[in-house]
Amino acid sequence: MDGNASSTREAMEKVNKLIKGIEVAMLTTISGNKAVSRPMQTQEAEFDGDLWFVTMKDTAKYQEILANPMVNVSYAGKSYVSISGTAEFSEDLERKKKYWNPIFDKLLETSYDDPNVVLIKVSADSAEYWESGNPLKMITKFAKKLTTHERLDKDDKELNDTVDFNNR
User: Fold this and answer.
1) Please, are residues 50 and 123 in contact by the beta-carbon 8 Å criterion?
2) 50 touches 84 (CB < 8 A)
3) Nearest 5 degrees, angle CA 62-CA 68-CA 70?
4) Which of 1, 36, 75, 167 could cysteine-pair with 81, CB 3.0–4.6 Å?
5) What confidence score (pLDDT) does residue 75 get?
6) Regarding beta strands 160-164 and 117-131, do their DSSP bridges make them parallel or antiparallel, or are they unpaired?
7) pTM (2 decimals)?
């Protein structure tokens, strides 16, 4: 495995670790000339560069993604992660069944095999994260930054970094 593939895999593992257990993400689409965000439940799957969401075709987000598939998905929990990518739709019945949650029966007032139900697959292009899961590490970093005049850009990658997934 070459260095790029290895670093891409490591970056995906890092992002997977940071978003694991955060059930709700904010999905941002473009509507005309403005960005629109709404909460979406991330489907339980290991992050391998793709994120999955269940939605309906008769929604504004469906039309917005058709018009412009560039989206952003953000997570806030023990850390903060912002994932930029391209969305597409899937009508794979087996995958819809796999990702279907009984809560959706009531919430969406339908079942997974409804032709109006569709999956959104977001293929990540890049991610930026701010790791806040270790308060001691954060306090130490910020204290050092406040008490010295040196920039800590290289060292700061422990807490904040941007990773590119285009090498996968």
Assistant:
1) yes
2) no
3) 100
4) 75
5) 94
6) antiparallel
7) 0.79
